[in-house]
Structure to design on (1079 residues):
């Protein structure tokens, strides 16, 4: 089982940004430190799981900012008290955590812990003095806080992995042209090899099988690539689908696709088995093909081909995917697309999917029918406020599921991007993690 | 300076050698379980003491045995209908009964008086002949089958024959709660071993050598407890007057278990504690509670554990505002039907502030029966006795300390997770749990700005975040949805007086709800989120419990600042939401636990490889190498100052 860490910053970049602001690594924006400190103490702290080093740094810097501020009412005691509170919490926290990690029945002293973790022992001394004796003088506190910040830099901030940042930066990778050409070359070669094999009727021979295997491996190498991100897979699927490798060029409406399926299946099935992301990416590309053409003409040969490929790809994924629930969620995703983009080919795909799966039928039939309804009668007048009952009480509620879905569907259509309705249920189960607007 | 001695002085009383064994056991149990279940505990202790490693640990009070950590449910008040008379027999002694195995996995067990049978897992229990008791509840042949949840993380309920020739049936069930296994490792391997697909339960002997090393303990009710229980039962039975029972004891002293058994004994078969952390609820219980808290969530639609009213303190501890806590509890109790006995599940904070709150609570709630669970501070006992001279006091000896398989934080997670996944099926009263990951539940899109805004304000209990960061703080966190009494929208935002009675509030509502509530108080962040800035004096006054109630918790799934919508996931049904649509609502945030379980469910569900390729806020994957093996680079010299 992989381990996951929950942290209060949304992305690693956020943490690095804050580090640069705290330690002036960035531009010298005057308020940058203040902003970073507030963000840590007045937001991340509330989110929980804030590493003690981050909290301590913010506390110590907050004390410095307090010292630098031009507040004339600030008393000497207030200054020293703020420094002391920040410093004490910093030291005590490290020692407590250390002791609790030791798990000894007779816990070590704070001094022992400090020695073992390489914290300057006079930190512990100063803490003790501040708590039990006189408040230390301002000069000593200022020095200790500086030193504390340097120590925190060494044990925590300097060790943050910058690689995560590099990942983000590499998102706009410059040149995938070469790789694309490579994909085209392999796909073309595969296609001719298969065609030749069929022509000479040796498609079942071992020699051809090993050729196919070699092609699959070549594709696998491209997809595995050097990076673990999804771009290679996406690029591969884009070339495969958008450049019409899958669609026979001389096809006319209503022709069978079996030839094309037979030609590509050996490669696709292997990729579906070996590349975890491939099924979903392929299906997504096919979705895009179906939905991007604004008018899905029922006479469009290519759309028909993509619709049939979509059904076939789902079937392949279902048969070959080794990864748990992917197949079911792919079907659901496809149905969602069919509902959102009603048209003759999405309707065909949707119906076929519903017929084949009772569970999907239960979940989506009402919505699907509603979407077809909308597509067929664009002039229909609908009360967009159904279901909100913001002035008259919930008189029309509760709806039966179907009615509600229809109502929501209409209001979603009409309101599209405004928040005119107080409460409304999201149309679809989101497929994005918590924290991302679906 | 002598730092060593002084440091010890500064941190906790020196541990008395003679007491070490008891403390040691508890402490060890605590430490060995402190690592979250999805982390691999590191073995080398030396490695643990590395400054960089410590630097990554949050310092949030969980490292000292501070007493401010309140248990998962700050208070539940439980009203149980008038009981039938029961007698509780002797402590079970021995014997395992005669077991026959049926074709469909069912076991038929014949028990003599005081013979016992214990199972781990999930099963239905039916009495065919005679009388049996479990968890304090008495079952007879006319009782309907009862669902028992006996995870190995908790003490196992024991089925006890109450007369010779008692025959009980233990039935395989269609599991409803085990759908949670896939969503969080906290729920894994706690029901039974997987080798017998026929049954959702197995006898506890079989699991004693389980390699998962669950510490299986039976839930035993000792003689003193039985005596107190039957005295309380007699009291409830014989007096016509109001009965309100409060158990007082330290953390993990067995209050909740005692209360559960007590409720079960008072209603003839039955079971309860309810709701997620931070919520105080009044629940009417009509069926026994045969499992740990997360198996019997209360809801307004549940026929067995009906939620009557709830308030939130938006925190796992009442330390920030004990007055509000007492005010909430007091207000709740006024909604309890006086003809039913009321069992109050108190918190385990029994010294300092906790003790004075307990005293206030005992007085404010007119407690008539106090059960003291030893060990208790003698001063507290004395104070309680002076303060409540009318109440009857019962004393229970110290219960053996049971090592728990989950930390308090983990238990709260389980409780909250079960709460969010819980559904009340229309047809049956049996609770069900949704197997979908919380992230794929369809959220409610709730507008917070503009003419149709339903959210009046976002309130912060305790410390308020900086308005610039309110959205960042709310995103992905837990909040309480609080409904305001429409007529009192104005009052509700004004400082609460925490008065226990409603005397002056029923008249003089001259200023009704026509105006926008306290529009002057409410400010907006740059994203348009409405909030109430804290007064110069400090914390924002909490909502007056007389004019508001907590509808449910919600997970802020996302914030769509463009369309001014909060995406909320709640356990409420669509009809419950429909009933809320025209009501003024406030979102209360405070120091609820981070819903880590929610961020990870779909990852757990989809297996080890899935999911991390996309952007996943607040979650990182920890490299298998571990921190020790990672290569660190020093990039810049520190420029502190």
């Amino acid at each position: 089982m992989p381990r996951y860490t929950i942290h209060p910053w949304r992305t690693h970049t956020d943490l690095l940004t804050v580090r640069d602001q705290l330690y002036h690594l960035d531009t010298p924006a005057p308020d940058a430190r203040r902003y970073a400190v507030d963000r840590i103490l007045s937001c991340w702290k509330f989110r929980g799981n804030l590493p003690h080093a981050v909290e301590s740094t913010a506390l110590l810097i907050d004390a410095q900012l307090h010292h630098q501020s031009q507040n004339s009412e600030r008393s000497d005691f207030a200054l020293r008290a703020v420094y002391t509170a920040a410093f004490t919490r910093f030291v005590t926290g490290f020692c407590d955590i250390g002791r609790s990690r030791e798990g000894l029945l007779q816990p070590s002293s704070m001094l022992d812990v400090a020695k073992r973790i390489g914290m300057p022992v006079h930190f512990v001394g100063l803490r003790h003095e501040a708590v039990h004796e006189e408040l230390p003088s301002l000069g000593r506190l200022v020095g200790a806080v500086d030193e504390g910040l340097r120590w925190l830099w060494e044990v925590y901030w300097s060790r943050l992995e910058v690689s995560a940042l590099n990942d983000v930066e590499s998102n706009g990778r410059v040149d995938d042209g070469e790789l694309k050409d490579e994909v085209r070359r392999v796909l073309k070669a595969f296609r001719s090899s298969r065609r030749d094999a069929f022509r000479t009727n040796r498609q079942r021979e071992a020699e051809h099988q090993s050729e196919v295997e070699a092609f699959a491996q070549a594709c696998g190498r491209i997809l595995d690539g050097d990076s673990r991100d999804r771009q290679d897979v996406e690029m591969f699927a884009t070339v495969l689908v958008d450049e019409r490798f899958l669609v026979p060029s001389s096809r006319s409406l209503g022709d069978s696709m079996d030839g094309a399926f037979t030609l590509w299946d050996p490669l696709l099935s292997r990729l579906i088995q070996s590349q975890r992301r491939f099924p979903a990416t392929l299906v997504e590309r096919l979705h895009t093909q179906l939905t991007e053409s604004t008018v899905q003409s029922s006479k469009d040969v290519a759309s028909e081909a993509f619709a049939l490929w979509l059904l076939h790809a789902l079937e392949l994924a279902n048969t070959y995917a080794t990864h748990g629930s992917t197949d079911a969620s792919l079907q659901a995703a496809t149905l969602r697309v069919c509902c959102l983009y009603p048209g003759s080919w999405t309707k065909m795909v949707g119906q076929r999917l519903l017929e084949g799966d009772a569970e999907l039928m239960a979940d989506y039939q009402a919505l699907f029918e509603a979407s077809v309804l909308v597509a067929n009668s664009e002039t229909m007048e609908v009360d967009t406020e159904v279901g909100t009952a913001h002035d008259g009480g919930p008189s029309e509620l509760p709806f039966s599921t179907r009615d509600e879905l229809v109502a929501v569907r209409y209001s979603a259509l009409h309101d599209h991007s405004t928040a005119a309705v107080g409460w409304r249920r999201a149309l679809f189960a989101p497929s994005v993690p918590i924290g991302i607007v679906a | 300076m002598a730092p060593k001695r002084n440091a010890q002085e500064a941190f906790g009383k020196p541990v008395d050698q003679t007491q070490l064994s008891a403390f040691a056991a508890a402490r060890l149990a605590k430490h060995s379980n402190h690592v979250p279940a999805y982390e691999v505990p590191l073995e080398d202790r030396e490695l643990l003491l590395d400054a960089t490693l410590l630097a990554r640990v949050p310092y949030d009070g969980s490292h000292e045995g501070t007493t401010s950590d309140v248990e998962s449910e700050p208070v539940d008040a439980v009203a149980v209908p008038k009981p039938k008379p029961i007698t509780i027999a002797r402590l079970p002694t021995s014997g395992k009964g005669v077991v026959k195995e049926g074709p469909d996995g069912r076991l038929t067990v014949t028990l003599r008086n005081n013979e016992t049978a214990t199972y781990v897992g999930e099963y239905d229990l039916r009495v065919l002949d005679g009388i049996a008791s479990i968890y304090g509840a008495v079952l007879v042949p006319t009782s309907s089958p009862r669902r028992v949840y006996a995870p190995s993380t908790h003490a196992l309920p024991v089925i006890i024959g109450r007369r010779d020739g008692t025959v009980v049936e233990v039935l395989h069930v269609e599991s409803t709660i085990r759908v949670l296994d896939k969503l969080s490792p906290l729920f894994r391997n706690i029901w039974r071993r997987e080798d017998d697909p026929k049954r959702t339960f197995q006898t506890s002997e079989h699991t004693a050598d389980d390699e998962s090393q669950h510490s299986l303990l039976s839930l035993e009710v000792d003689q003193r407890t039985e005596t107190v229980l039957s005295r309380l039962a007699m009291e409830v039975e014989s007096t016509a007057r109001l009965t309100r029972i409060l158990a007082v004891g330290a953390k993990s002293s067995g209050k909740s278990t005692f209360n559960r058994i007590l409720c079960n004994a008072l209603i003839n078969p039955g079971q309860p504690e309810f709701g997620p952390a931070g919520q105080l609820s009044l629940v009417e219980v009509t069926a026994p509670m045969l499992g740990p808290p997360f198996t019997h969530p209360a809801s307004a639609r549940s026929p067995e554990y009906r939620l009557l009213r709830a308030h939130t303190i938006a925190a796992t501890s009442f330390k920030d505002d004990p007055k509000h806590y007492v005010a909430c509890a007091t207000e709740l109790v006024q909604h309890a039907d006086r003809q039913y006995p009321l069992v109050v599940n108190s918190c385990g904070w029994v010294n300092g502030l906790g003790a004075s709150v307990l005293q206030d609570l005992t007085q404010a709630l007119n407690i008539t029966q106090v059960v003291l669970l030893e060990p208790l501070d003698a001063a507290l006992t004395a104070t309680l006795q002076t303060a409540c001279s009318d109440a009857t006091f019962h004393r229970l000896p110290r219960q053996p300390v049971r090592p728990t398989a989950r930390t308090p934080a983990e238990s709260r997670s389980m409780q909250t997770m079960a709460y969010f996944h819980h559904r009340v099926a229309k047809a049956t009263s049996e609770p069900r749990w949704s197997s979908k990951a919380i992230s794929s539940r369809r959220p409610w899109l709730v507008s917070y700005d503009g003419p149709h805004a339903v959210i009046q304000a976002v309130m912060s209990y305790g410390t308020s975040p900086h308005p610039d960061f309110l959205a960042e703080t709310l995103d992905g966190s837990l909040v309480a949805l609080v409904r305001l009494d429409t007529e009192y929208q104005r009052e509700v935002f004004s400082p609460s007086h925490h008065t226990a009675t409603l005397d002056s509030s029923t008249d003089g509502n001259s200023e009704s709800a026509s105006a926008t509530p306290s529009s002057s108080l409410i400010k907006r962040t740059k994203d348009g989120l409405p909030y109430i800035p804290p007064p110069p004096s400090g914390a924002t006054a909490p909502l007056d419990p007389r004019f508001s109630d907590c509808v449910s918790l919600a997970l802020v799934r996302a914030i769509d600042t463009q369309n001014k919508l909060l995406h909320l996931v709640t356990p409420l049904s669509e009809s419950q939401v429909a009933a809320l649509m025209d009501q003024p609502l406030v979102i209360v945030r405070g120091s609820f636990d981070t819903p880590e379980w929610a961020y990870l469910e779909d990852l757990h569900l989809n297996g080890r490889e899935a999911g991390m390729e996309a952007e996943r806020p607040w979650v990182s994957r920890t490299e298998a190498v571990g921190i020790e093996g990672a290569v660190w680079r020093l990039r810049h010299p520190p420029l502190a100052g």
Chain B has a mean pLDDT of 72. Chain B touches chain A through 123 residues (CB under 8 Å).
